[in-house]
Amino acid sequence: MNNDITNANNNETNDNTEVWDALMKTIFQKGLATLKPYFPHVEGLVVNDEKFGQIFIYRVTNDFKKTYDCGFFLRELAEQFQDGGREAGEWMASFFYELMKTNKGGKELPPPPDSEQKEEQFIDDVLFPHCLSAVSEEFAPLTITGNRGLDENHTPVLELGFKDVPEEKCVFPIHYLYKMMQLNRDPSDTILVQLAKLRQKYGVE
Predict the structure, then answer these.
(1) Of 1, 105, 125, 136, which sees the most CB atoms within 10 A?
(2) Where are the domains of the chain?
């Protein structure tokens, strides 16, 4: 009896794993097919990140034979493809086009930091100034409020808001913003969208 139950549980686990693997493969192949109409050559891989789970990394080659890497989270690709992916191609390709504008010679993913100290230094010296500059430019001449803190799970976060909307702030996990940069994505894009929604919520321009 016990052996039967154990075998049944093992079979269910194997079935779930196979279904999950098949889903990841489907999404990955969908990403390749979605990008191929826009670039001469597309390749990629799926990696498993300790904090963020499956990440889909694609490399495209442009007409000048320069290569560009960009990574996407499972959640956002699933959302893009759930309605048939009619606009997913333009959305995915736009990140590569942005890289091509500012990096004429190509851009691969940056190497991981050698230590936590270097990661913190990058966050302080590069990530924060970049995000704060983008916010200030987008919403000038409004006064932006912000500080570092911890959420209820003791996760380091960046809190941003507006002086004229004291009721609420937008909270962004710092390591999520950092990961975006590691994937050659601009973390300020996410911040600007959420801050715009905050002003819309409170009916201020």
Answers:
(1) 136
(2) 2-102, 116-201
